[in-house]
Design a protein that fits this description.
This protein is an alpha/beta fold. It folds into 2 domains: about 120 residues, 3-Layer(aba) Sandwich (Rossmann fold); about 60 residues, Arc Repressor Mutant, subunit A. About 50% of the residues lie in helices and about 10% in strands. Strand 4, helix 4 and strand 5 form a beta-alpha-beta unit. The longest helix has 15 residues.
């Protein structure tokens, strides 16, 4: 169960596909959450202004208002509300936009029940992100490659730019992730922002 002392937590979920809303609601209700779902971001935003909410989960690609636009509006009026962004189009530029706009985390579709539950429990458990490591923990080559990764460049393109084999770039990328203590793009972007590498 989520929460302590039988205190029920409320999740707002936004996706323009009703079946997705229903499936997510069913999953989160099984761990003790009260779930309110919306197929239109504007309806969610209206309810947020008058109803209690402990975590907001929103899809990224929706008509009329996308998830980052909703996130931006929410953060203006409720800066402390944690927001998870779901997308089937995950890439580094979108992760950067989401994190800079205030997203707590970024989950790529299709996601498993375990991934969703883990992300929500992390938010509600208020797990604080680990402190960014100092720049000196990365070699100069790793810093250069990290900057190229943050520009959205793939291993093959970086290998060409650096006149190295793709396998060598993969090894550097592995070392960068290991040294920064991350295993996904969102956490890498968060760490890079904390290190001052991404404006």
């Amino acid at each position: 169960m989520v929460g302590t002392a039988n205190q029920e937590k409320t999740c707002f979920f936004v996706d323009d596909e009703p079946k997705v809303c229903q499936a997510v609601a069913k999953t989160l209700e099984k761990i003790g959450l009260k779930v309110r779902y919306f197929t239109r971001p504007v309806d969610c935003f209206k309810q947020l202004r008058s109803q209690p909410c402990d975590v907001l989960i929103t899809d990224l690609r929706m008509p009329q208002m996308d998830g980052i636009q909703l996130l931006t509006r929410v953060k203006r009026t409720m800066p402390s509300l944690p927001v998870l962004i779901l997308t089937g189009y995950g890439d580094i530029p979108i992760a950067v936009r989401a994190v800079k706009a205030g997203a707590y985390n970024f989950i790529e579709k299709p996601f498993s029940r375990e991934t969703l539950v883990s992300a929500v429990k992390s938010v509600l458990g208020q797990i604080t992100p680990s402190k960014a490591l100092k720049r000196k923990s990365l070699t100069q080559t790793e810093m250069t490659i990290l900057r190229l990764i943050l520009q959205g460049r793939g291993n093959r393109e970086i290998a060409h730019l650096r006149s190295r084999s793709e396998r060598t770039i993969e090894w550097h990328r592995y070392n960068i992730m290991r040294k920064l203590g991350v295993n996904n793009v969102v956490d890498l972007v968060k760490k890079a922002i904390a290190m001052g590498l991404k404006d």
